[in-house]
Design the sequence.
């Protein structure tokens, strides 16, 4: 339906990703889940599939820094907390953050969406 050829590996990964409630996974997490489900795929194939799912509009990528991305099965507009100690993201409803005074986009461009990642860490006493 998303215009992707349903290879056995893609179908198996889609089942792992979309079977339950909405969630955020890294490529490494999905790779570990695939291994425990006896789906034999390389990390490179996981990366490729995640990016193909993203390009097909099935996933949203949440980049928390240059080397770390999570893939969100909820593609609707919302924001995220990044829990630095646990290295995971949780949702912030779109309505909880008011974004004002966005600059005019560069000439000839539209703003597609605004992602806010709020980084949090446990209070140390
Ligand atoms: Zn999310």
Sequence:
């Amino acid at each position: 339906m998303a215009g992707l050829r349903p290879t056995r590996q893609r179908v198996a990964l889609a089942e792992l990703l979309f079977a339950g409630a909405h969630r955020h996974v890294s490529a490494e997490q999905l790779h570990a889940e695939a291994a425990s489900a006896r789906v034999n795929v390389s990390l490179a194939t996981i990366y490729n599939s995640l990016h193909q799912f993203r390009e097909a509009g099935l996933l949203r990528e949440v980049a928390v820094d240059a080397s770390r991305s999570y893939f969100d099965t909820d593609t609707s507009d919302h924001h995220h907390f990044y829990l630095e100690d646990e290295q995971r993201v949780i949702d912030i409803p779109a309505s909880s953050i008011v974004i004002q005074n966005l600059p005019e986009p560069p000439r000839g461009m539209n703003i597609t969406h605004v992602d806010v990642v709020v980084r949090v860490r446990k209070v140390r006493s």
Remarks:
- Residues 80 and 91 are 5 Å apart (CA to CA).
